[in-house]
Amino acid sequence: MEKQNISSASFFIGKQGEGIISFGSGQPDLPPPKEVYSIYEKAPKIFRYGLIQGEENLRQALSKEHMGAHFDQFVITNGGSEALDLVFRVIAGQMKGGKVLLPRPYYYSYLPIIQFAGLKPVFTELVDGKIDIDDVRQKIKGCVAFLLNSPSNPTGRAQAPEIIQEIELLTKEAGAYLVADEVYKDLVYDGTHYSPKGNHVITIDSFSKTFALCGLRVGFIYTANKKIIESVVEMKVHTSMNTNLLAQEMALGALRAPKSFIDNQREIWRGRRDVIYQGLKDLGFDLWKPEGAFYVFPKVKDPEKIVSDLFYDHKVIVYNGSWFGAPDRIRLSYALDTDKIQEGLRRIETYLKSEPGILS
Fold first, then answer.
1. Tell me: the pLDDT tens digits for 185-210?
2. CATH assignment of 9-26+260-354?
3. 42-255, CATH topology level
4. CA–CA separation, 292 vs 151, rounded Å?
5. What is the mean pLDDT of the segment spanning 305-310?
6. Alpha helical stretches, state H, 20-159
């Protein structure tokens, strides 16, 4: 295989087969709940145009999952990605531009989404994967929004409830929106999760991770801010129009699954977390123990070389930490079964033996 320059995650997305072990995309390999397959009797109704804001039955079901919410406070989107895109373009229009504060390392799509909206990203550096609240207190001044992702992609770290509550207060005092990307909120292994609240809070969520429905592309925006909802719907009618109706019906089916489904999935992820974390530690990697999501983010000396060598010489996919704002790390997703995780670790061990000193 001729070696090409691997400059972004797009090189790897969708690559599979041919003996490849992929620690790349955060795509759950676990099956979705059986309830998602109960929609086919509704097939004749899914070929029409739908409500731009999202079908009312799905929004009603979501409102019951969020205490005190009303179904008109939700917009159903094409995954969490469209939700973020719409929200930041609406914020940019309202605020006539401005700065968005976000923790670094960050999910690799955040910067383009913020910049495409005409906003300027500024950063607060994570300390051992945790938010430095004193730094946020200083830097939030003059910003139009703060983008929070907990548990985090790529770090796997979860912020303590008291830290999120402090950010909730600081953003309110600063007159800034708090955009909370909560797509991993149901995958917290250690501690508890706190979802921020308030008229200035805009929550982004998705069915992709919790219910293993990545390909359906169903996400949603939830906020008590009526102006944001109205502006998002008005923008969406001119871009993607309604979100796929078949996918919305399947998402509604997922919400009917018993809560034990999520609990059982979480325990599988926890077990995989323990396998890959300890395996990488035993190989000499320096890394944080993830408290949520399904990523590990170990330190390395030359991530570009490691990413290329592992893929071309050992058929192992890992992501370059530089794509996430961390040029001294690589990201591995453990969204694959334990046998494949262990095989991937064996291949990484073989590579490390051929490249002494690559970790230091």
1. 999 998 899 999 999 999 999 999 99
2. 3.90.1150.10
3. Aspartate Aminotransferase; domain 2 (3.40.640)
4. 5
5. 95
6. 56-65, 79-95, 110-116, 133-139
